[in-house]
Amino acid sequence: MTGFTDLPDLASRALGGGVVDANDEFFAARDNLVTPEPPTFAAGTFGPKGQVYDGWETRRRRDPGHDYAILRLGAPGVVRGVVVDTSYFTGNYPPHASVEGCGMPGYPGPAELADAEWLPLVARSPLRGDTRNLFQVDSPHRFTHVRLRIYPDGGVARLRVHGVVVPDPELFPDGQLDLAALEHGGLVVGCSDMFYGSPHQLLAPGLARSMGEGWETARRRDDGNDWVRVRLAVPGQIRQVELDTSHFKGNAPAAATLRGIDARVADPAEPAGWFEVLPRTRLQPDTRHRFPVDVPGTATDVRLDVFPDGGMARMRLPGRVAPTELGRLRRRWSESLPPAHARRIAPSGSRRVGAWGPAPGG
Ligand SMILES: NC(=O)NC(NC(N)=O)C(=O)[O-]
């Protein structure tokens, strides 16, 4: 794993991201900005408003100003880079764009977001048409929303917001959670092959709807086996291993093993530090397998080996986090809040009720 685009897209619809506001979407719907699949184009397809585009496209401005869209991240986190993808927008891409982020508690609507404290992620920069425009981001804050501004108008196919999830520890007060879940901060840090499907999808929320929503390798023609390594959201004890081969019917692995390591005290490069979580276990195609396990060790990372190759829809690792780690998670969360969000959090957990604005009708 090298550049920021290897990190998960926090805005993706696959993670629950959405477009909550835009000043205009005359030619093409804002919602397309967060579609997980790459953009497509069919020349000469005209609807009642014009050429059909797989992206967000505003009308031609006849007055000064600029257009904007606001995205809710599916999983709030620290942003490492954004991709303003103008694929297929050639005579109608915006020549410039900027991106800002804000961190808000609760579930703000467009009116609250308009008044939010927006911090710069990408300064106003030139864009190329029909191009994935990459911008590195350097900000330590945990953002819940981003705002894309385009100058003055035009079309953008996708906005990818790559980063590291920073979970809200209040969501698992008793320390029980899926230690591998992307939305909790679990992260794929390496894999042998991802020819047909991204390994990040293994950790995505919900059930996969098709084979395309899982991790799938190419057919192996040697004696090796495929594997994926995951950094857990937080160090913890794994209580159950869920390996879901749903939709993989002619291409499920025959068997799998799972090993864990506490990389704070052992070197992952040395085999000695790895302990068995799930012994080599036969798998069935198209099946959600759930194996209770009793592992005394704490793991920071796991490695799933599949034999010999194939595909898997999801891997879940329900487990328990030590109270000390929960404290560390709380500190990491509070230290990464942008100033406006931090000001809204009163001490002693008062954010549980009415933390954002008055109750409806109140
Ligand atoms: N051929 C076009 O793309 N024209 C217009 N856009 C759409 N969607 O028809 C425009 O003015 O940008």
Automatic annotation (TrEMBL):
Known pathway: Nitrogen metabolism; (S)-allantoin degradation; (S)-ureidoglycolate from allantoate (aminidohydrolase route): step 1/1
Task: Recite the UniProt keywords alphabetically.
Answer: Hydrolase, Purine metabolism
Query: Hydrolase: present as a keyword of the record?
Result: yes
| Ranges for domain Allantoicase | 16-165, 185-321
Where are the bilayer-spanning segments? Answer: none
Pfam families cross-referenced by the UniProt entry: Allantoicase
Instruction: List the EC numbers from the record.
Output: 3.5.3.4
- What catalytic reaction does the record list? allantoate + H2O = (S)-ureidoglycolate + urea
Recorded GO terms, molecular function? allantoicase activity
Top-level taxon of the source organism: Bacteria
Q: InterPro entries recorded for this chain?
A: Allantoicase (IPR005164), Allantoicase_dom (IPR015908), Galactose-bd-like_sf (IPR008979)
HAMAP family membership: Allantoicase (MF_00813)
> PANTHER family from the entry?
ALLANTOICASE, INACTIVE ALLANTOICASE-RELATED
**Family named by the database record:** Belongs to the allantoicase family.
* UniProt name for this protein: Probable allantoicase
* Species this protein is from: Plantactinospora solaniradicis
Q: Which gene encodes it?
A: alc
